Amino acid sequence: MFKKLFKNPKTRYRNLGLIILPFVLLFCLFGFLAWRSAGNLLGGSTSMANSIDTMDYHLRANATEYQRSLFQELSDLCLTDAENKDKEAIAASVVENFIADFYTWTNKAGSYDVGGLYYVYSPSKANIYTQARDTFYHYLTNYIKDYGAENLLEVAQDSIEIKGSKVDEKYSYNGNEYDAYYYSATWSYVDHDGFDESDYETSENFLVIENEDGRFEIVQAYGD
């Protein structure tokens, strides 16, 4: 068969191109899907509305008004000169930004679009992403089809309440010690008709560290 395809010098290159083309298209498709998945793994939408580059915090392009407000507060805190930085306020703001993104579904595209990952401990990001997809985000794609994303969970404006401060003991991990901050948080959801928000979390406890680069990251999150 192949000998016949390549026997005629006038058509052999055309036939070769027709054979190779499907493989090239498949390669491009898989490359695009891998690129998109990598973008989602980093924390959500690959198109960002705003960034705090020194801390690697980013705001998704389709952020809610509440998310935009919280991110602006975090940006203002991080851009303060080093001598006047309020580290407890920054750590608390990181928790608020995580909650507002992770627990909001109205601006997510599906189960793979996990929010809040820019605020978690960087070496554990891949594991946290996988765990979130298997638990809290597991049925999100189905919910979007059944109810519409605009009717799903959305952390309500100004509803997040944070209590806590820096703790006396250092947080030890892999032989290193870090300054640590403990916060307990509560929040509520926008009441959307047709979707029952009552079964979902509205409180959680967080442990935040300041790593070697001065970046504040959530290392633990757990319920009461």
Order of helices and strands: HHEEHHHHEEEEE
Taken as a percent bin, the fraction of beta residues is 15-25%
Task: Determine the number of helices (DSSP H or I, runs of at least 4 residues).
Answer: 6
Gap from first CA to last CA: 69 Å
Number of strands: 7
Uncertain spans: 28-46
Evaluate the radius of gyration: 23 Å
Share of helical residues: 25-40%
Helix/strand/pairing category: alpha+beta
Mean pLDDT across all amino acids = 86
Largest sheet: 5 strands, antiparallel
**In one word, what is the shape?**
globular
Short recap of the structure:
The protein is α+β, with helices and mostly antiparallel strands. It contains 6 helices and 7 strands, in the order H-H-E-E-H-H-H-H-E-E-E-E-E.
Structure commentary:
- Helices cover 38% and strands 20% of the residues.
- By secondary structure, it is α+β, with helices and mostly antiparallel strands.
- The strands form two sheets. Strands 3, 4, 5, 6 and 7 form a five-stranded antiparallel beta sheet that branches.
- β6 and β7 form a beta hairpin.
- The longest helix is centred in the first third of the chain and has 30 residues, at 12-41.
- It is globular.
